[in-house]
Amino acid sequence: MIRQTVRRLLTAPAIRRGLCSDSSRVQSAHQVFAALTKNRPVFRITEPVDVIQEPSMFYQGLLRGIAQAKSRIVLSSLYLGSDEPELVSALDQALAANQALRVDILLDCLRGTRSDSRGQSSATMLAPLVRKYGDERVRVAMYHTPALNGISKRLWPQRYNETFGLQHIKAYVFDDELIVSGANLSRDYFTNRQDRYIRIGSRGLAAYFVDLVRAIASFSFILGAERNLAMSVGVPDPSRDPREFVAVANSAMTGFLGRAQAENSVTGDDIDEADTLAIPTVQMSQLGITQDEEHMREFFHITDTYARLHGCRNLMASAYFNFSDFHKHNVLRSSSRWDLLVASPRANGFYTASGISRYIPDMYSIIEHEFLKSARSCGRPDIAVEEYYRDGWTFHGKGVWCYLDQKLPQLTMIGSPNYGYRSIYCDLETQITLIPGTTGSQLRDDLHQEALSLLSHSEMVTEVGLEKRIRGAPLWLYGLKPFILKKM
């Protein structure tokens, strides 16, 4: 039997009567979303785009990309798991077999140097590659947030100090092929932690992400052969001189984004509706870069306006029900129908945690309950919340699927943001907006099947059901809500 959540997505929205009686007047997706291409780099994708469904397929794609790369491998992730010797070995073999190959890796400094019980970390895993091949062929950059500085840097312990801000971008480049995802380079993300993954063949888009990673590396710590970290030449230490660091980092990012836009800009006359368009955006509020926030604001405006005339529905997924006030406000006020997909408590990565962390799934349930109350008070029965649960799995997927008045998505967003406070104000994030062209019917089908697959493991929750779930939650948990909203 088709689950209620899947049936809901399959049901087309009603056209607003009296506002658009002539279906021939309905605009194409390229026309509807034309404003998203302004002041942004835009890439025309002519090769087939592959939607990867399972973590194991994502992992095999990484190994295949490493083995086949001829000139460049770029890996950007929060961290590399200390249980990933196979991935490191694959990089070693590729470097040994091809003297022309260069590897750039971007990780977060705080997470990348956090040690496990064996004393292993991302840094200890990768330093041997730097030692063996030299920093001209292997460059491991580790970004450090300027928000953790001074006495805070000394007092906050590992794990908790990561709440100040992270390098959160997930993008994997092999020559002219890009895999964009929200997944990290760790064993659970390759086996039973469901995320999203899309493979795109495009020399221009791949080059954009190579340049993005190298721009961030220019103001990051660089890993040495002996596991030592040294700041890039001429860049202030963000933990000692955060103000000067931000100025340098902002200059580097502003320059990169300006060049990317100038080299890859389009106008309405340039857009061929047969082309699939890819629009990358970045968010780095701590460094004064808010491109993705502006992009999302425009997307909310476009879909709200369109829905008033034609009807529109959207699916937005996040690993956690911790959407920012910005996202919740725009969903509640929108004329579009919205489905929000998040992890159920049992599919939340914190479900089996120890100490205070084990209460985090309860906090997300409390926030869900408050949101559904707000939706009811706003008269929005067309807003629903679904929770993903698959026995033995956790959920880490994020992104947007936009269905205009058709039965297939005309736009998707995929990348690293969880659409929470941290995504906007703390972390380094990037996502890609894909608008399939008229020749991209297979891509639209694949994106729709991806959404249906995720929803097939999901159940819609209700205000009453959530009220029962949180009834036994300790009162002190409510006092932690401001911290959870901004730090998790």
TrEMBL record:
User: Has UniProt tagged this entry with the keyword Mitochondrion?
Assistant: yes
Which pathway is recorded for this entry?
Phospholipid metabolism; phosphatidylglycerol biosynthesis; phosphatidylglycerol from CDP-diacylglycerol: step 1/2
Biological process GO terms, please?
Answer: cardiolipin biosynthetic process
Xref: Gene3D superfamilies: Endonuclease Chain A
User: Among its keywords, does the record have GTP-binding?
Assistant: no
Where, per UniProt, does this protein localize? Mitochondrion
Cross-referenced InterPro entries = PGS1, PLD-like_dom, PLipase_D/transphosphatidylase
- Please write the reaction equations for the catalytic activity of this protein: a CDP-1,2-diacyl-sn-glycerol + sn-glycerol 3-phosphate = a 1,2-diacyl-sn-glycero-3-phospho-(1'-sn-glycero-3'-phosphate) + CMP + H(+)
**In the Enzyme Commission scheme, what number(s) does this protein have?**
2.7.8.5
Report the residue ranges that make up the PLD phosphodiesterase domain in this protein. 163-189
CDD domains, per this entry? PLDc_PGS1_euk_1 (cd09135), PLDc_PGS1_euk_2 (cd09137)
Which PANTHER family does this entry report, sorted A to Z? CDP-DIACYLGLYCEROL--GLYCEROL-3-PHOSPHATE 3-PHOSPHATIDYLTRANSFERASE, MITOCHONDRIAL, CDP-DIACYLGLYCEROL--SERINE O-PHOSPHATIDYLTRANSFERASE
What this chain does, per the record?
Functions in the biosynthesis of the anionic phospholipids phosphatidylglycerol and cardiolipin.
Q: What is this protein called?
A: CDP-diacylglycerol--glycerol-3-phosphate 3-phosphatidyltransferase
